[in-house]
Amino acid sequence: MNRLLVAAALGRLTQEHRDVLWECYFLGSSVAQAAHALGIAPGTVKSRTYYAMRALRLAIEELRDVE
Amino acid sequence: MTADPYARLDAAYLLGALDADERLAYEAHLAICRRCRAGLAEISAIPSLLAGLDE
Predict the structure, then answer these.
(1) Interface residues of chain A, partner chain B, Cβ below 8 Å
(2) What's the pLDDT band for A2 if we cut at 50, 70, 90?
(3) In chain A, N or C: fewer CB atoms in 10 Å?
(4) Which residues span the domain enclosing B16?
(5) pLDDT in tens, chain B (55 residues)
(6) Global pTM value
(7) Rounded to whole angstroms, how far apart are CA atoms A8 and B17?
């Protein structure tokens, strides 16, 4: 998998989706820590990561199809 | 449409963001819920793709 493609796919996400992935993946935050850092409810962290991961998967697939 | 309270937990689980109690409950649920297993499988490749960004 092309690293640039994954980076480009991240760039297609909304800021909210990037932020929650940054917290939970790149910073390794727990749901509670991410909720505190982002000022949202823990339940929102869970649902937002759910939608962010699917948006990222879709963006990767779309960019891969273009290549 | 689903009322499954576990159905939106796959990403937080995969990212290791759930606390221990919730992680264990989710794993127990996975064993009995085909739909949640399928949901998890949809995104299971993503963390390794993100890991490639750190290389």
Answers:
(1) 1, 3, 6-7, 21, 24-26, 28-32, 34, 45-47, 49-50, 52-54, 56-57, 60
(2) confident
(3) C
(4) 10-54
(5) 557 889 999 999 999 999 999 999 999 999 999 999 999 999 999 999 999 886 6
(6) 0.92
(7) 24
CATH code, domain carrying B38: 1.10.10.1320
Nearest to residue A3, comparing CAs of B48, B16, B27?
B48
pLDDT averaged over chain A?
A: 95
Catalogue all structural domains in chain A, each as residue range(s) with its CATH number. Answer: 3-66 (1.10.10.10)
What value of ipTM does the predicted structure carry? Answer: 0.90
Q: By C-alpha distance, which of A56, A15, A51, A61 is closest to B7? A: A51
Q: Based on C-alpha coordinates, what's the Rg of chain A?
A: 13
